[in-house]
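Per your request, structure below.
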């Protein structure tokens, strides 16, 4: 129930600005219904007039007048529908646009924890299936709901005004129709919600598989992958079948009941004529009129039940989008301090972190990175190197202790000023679709070509870019095929050099690149850390032997620290790590 409230609130928020358009759509749909309800009375009267004219010489002119009114009713009803559709298509596109914009903006403000804990495919589903479902439902449901409900009420009212006995014959099957509609709609509701969840799970799985396709192929895991996929697909199929069955079966059932109703109306009308309760022309007119009415009060039941599927999908989508809107955002510390140029450096004081409450990853870390110095963090995989980087950039906040820049807790700076001054070169560097120029100038949109070239030269990637036929204007495809992993890191280093951050975190990617690129990365790294305060997360120890200080991390605690030589002299854990790597090289 609370979830439905959430969905309605969501719709209210995005439809409220369009209240004038919704009002106009309502007015025109009511006008259309009015003429639709009026038309059968003209139809009945036309039959009565025609029968009178044929049997006892009634006036042909009055028959023609009624036929003209009948045609006018149909025309005006269609015109009103047309106007509603024009208004509606316009405002629903606008409302959907605002929803899409808000979702994208919200994602920009979300914490990294959200992205760590939600699969990409599921997030993508919000844009594809959920927003699409909402758009489809808004387009069809708003008009149809108003039109069909008013048609239902209007038809019943007019029927009883015209002839109570005929009206009673006509509504004979109504209780059964309502009962069936309610039972089946309840069932459909359950399975359509399930269908959405299963589709989202399937999307998440497919997305994950696509990302890991190379691993799947190299390990010959295609078969397992297909087996796993079958389970997700089977779950979707099962929910889809039940959802579609219960919502789809309503349509033929209602049609069947409507046809049965025609027979009841004809029988009822014939009885009234035979019992001499109405004249033959009036009776025939009533039969035609009530067949039309019988159709027009069953039509809303049929339409609403087929709309139900659409509405349910939209409500489920709205619930999910509303929940995303409620997600915790990054605390941007809007009223915080601005970070001034670094004077002393960075300190980690007794820093602990657990991504979850029950498992601490870092335990009381103490590190100082003096201004202009390079501190390298080394340690076995899973020791917490990347986690430290996540903390300095405030992707996550410390569970205990404090990280300070020039003595001020980094939580006191505005997030923008902190992030503008802390540059990051990730191990798995990302390139975006666009030109190479745009990719390097990503953090400094107003950079000139000369500045971009200069950064690329220092990052050892200029020669490669120049060798491409379109140079800096070369378009990079979405998955960055133009560049190898190492080259992507060089692009990322060039990007960082251009923004010239005060403090740098560099997660080196030398572990899976060829020796030539490795050397280039080494030169680029030396260039980017020159005269800069930096943290280097090192996987290959020979890349950081010149660091001013090396922190050796093991199981989330600092085991040893010192210069390369000091640590070798210790003959401890670092010494062993280094010797192992040298032997391997
Ligand atoms: N977002 C996260 N949520 C929960 N646990 C995490 C998250 N990121 C890392 N961890 C856990 O924290 C521990 C330290 O991970 P981290 O990535 O910091 O290690 P690392 O030293 O950088 O490893 P590697 O050398 O393999 O990159 C690991 O046990 C990992 O499972």
């Amino acid at each position: 129930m609370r979830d439905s409230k959430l969905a309605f609130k969501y719709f209210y928020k995005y439809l409220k600005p369009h209240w004038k358009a919704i009002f106009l759509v309502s007015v025109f749909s009511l006008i259309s219904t009015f003429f639709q309800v009026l038309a059968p009375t003209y139809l009945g009267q036309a039959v009565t007039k025609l029968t009178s004219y044929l049997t006892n010489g009634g006036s042909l002119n009055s028959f023609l007048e009624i036929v003209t009114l009948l045609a006018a009713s149909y025309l005006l009803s269609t015109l009103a529908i047309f106007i509603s559709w024009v208004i509606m298509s316009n405002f629903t596109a606008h409302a959907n646009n605002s929803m899409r914009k808000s979702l994208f903006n919200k994602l920009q403000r979300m914490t990294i924890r959200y992205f760590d804990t939600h699969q990409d495919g599921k997030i993508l589903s919000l844009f594809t299936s959920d927003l699409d479902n909402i758009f489809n439902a808004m387009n069809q449901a708003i008009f149809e709901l108003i039109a069909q409900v008013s048609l239902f009420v209007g038809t019943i009212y007019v029927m009883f005004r015209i002839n109570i006995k005929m009206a009673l014959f006509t509504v004979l099957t109504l209780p059964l129709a309502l009962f069936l509609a309610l039972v089946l709609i309840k069932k459909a509701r359950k399975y359509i919600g399930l269908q959405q969840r299963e589709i989202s799970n399937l999307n998440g799985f497919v997305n994950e598989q696509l990302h890991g396709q190379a691993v799947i192929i190299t390990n010959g895991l295609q078969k397992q992958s297909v087996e796993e996929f079958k389970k997700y697909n089977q779950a979707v199929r099962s929910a889809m079948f039940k959802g579609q069955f219960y919502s789809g079966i309503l349509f033929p059932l209602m049609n069947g009941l409507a046809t049965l109703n025609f027979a009841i109306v004809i029988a009822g009308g014939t009885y009234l004529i035979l019992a001499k309760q109405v004249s033959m022309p009036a009776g025939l007119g009533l039969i035609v009129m009530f067949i039309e009415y019988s159709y027009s009060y069953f039509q809303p039941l049929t339409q609403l039940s087929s709309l139900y599927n659409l509405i349910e999908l939209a409500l489920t989508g709205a619930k999910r989008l509303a929940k995303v809107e409620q997600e915790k955002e990054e605390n941007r510390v809007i009223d915080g301090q601005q970070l001034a140029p670094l004077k002393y450096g960075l300190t980690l004081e007794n820093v602990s972190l657990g991504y979850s409450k029950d498992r601490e990853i870092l335990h009381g870390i103490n590190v100082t990175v003096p201004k202009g110095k390079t501190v390298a963090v080394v340690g076995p995989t899973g020791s917490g190197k990347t986690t430290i980087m996540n903390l300095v950039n405030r992707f996550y906040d410390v569970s205990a202790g404090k990280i300070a820049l020039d003595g001020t807790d980094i939580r006191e700076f505005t997030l923008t000023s902190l992030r503008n001054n802390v540059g990051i070169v990730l191990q798995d560097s990302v390139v975006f679709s666009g030109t190479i120029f745009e990719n390097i100038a990503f953090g400094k949109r107003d950079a000139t070509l000369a500045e971009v070239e200069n950064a690329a030269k220092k990052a050892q990637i200029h020669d490669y870019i120049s060798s491409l036929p379109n140079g800096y204007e070369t378009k990079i495809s979405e998955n960055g095929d133009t560049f190898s992993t190492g080259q992507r890191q060089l692009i990322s280093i060039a990007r960082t050099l251009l923004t010239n951050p005060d403090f740098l975190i560099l997660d080196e990617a030398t572990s899976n690149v060829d020796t030539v690129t490795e050397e280039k990365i080494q030169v680029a790294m030396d260039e980017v850390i020159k005269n800069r305060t930096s943290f280097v997360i090192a996987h290959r120890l020979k890349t950081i032997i010149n660091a001013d200080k090396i922190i050796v991390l093991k199981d989330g605690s600092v085991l040893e620290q010192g210069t390369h030589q000091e640590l070798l002299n210790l003959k401890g854990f670092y010494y062993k790590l280094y010797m192992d790597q040298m032997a391997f090289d």
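The chain has two domains: 2-326, 345-584.

Regards,
D.
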